[in-house]
Amino acid sequence: MTSEQTPEQKAAEARAEKITFGIFGAIVLALVLGFVTMGLTGVGLVAVATVPVIYVLLVLMAGGKG
After folding, report:
1. CB half-sphere exposure, 32, CA atoms < 13 A
2. What is the pLDDT of residue 19?
3. Do 34 and 45 touch, CB atoms closer than 8 A?
4. At 57, is the secondary structure helix, strand, or coil?
5. CB 17 within 8 A of CB 9
6. What is the rounded CA–CA span in Å between residue 29 and residue 33?
7. Which pLDDT tens digit goes with each residue over 2-61?
8. In 10 A of CB 46, how many CB atoms?
């Protein structure tokens, strides 16, 4: 079976990849800024704050079934 994609599907996949990389980049940037401003405590605060965001993203990826 071939898995040919239409141009619209390819564009949607490329857009989703850009958004994913943007989210990961924002998380890494937040962790670095937390470390620079408050040391390891800042990293912990940022990590705890991103837990709800990760949960929401997982629910959205699952199709809203949460």
Report:
1. 6
2. 85
3. yes
4. helix
5. no
6. 6
7. 578 898 888 888 888 888 888 889 888 988 999 999 998 999 998 898 888 888 888 887
8. 19
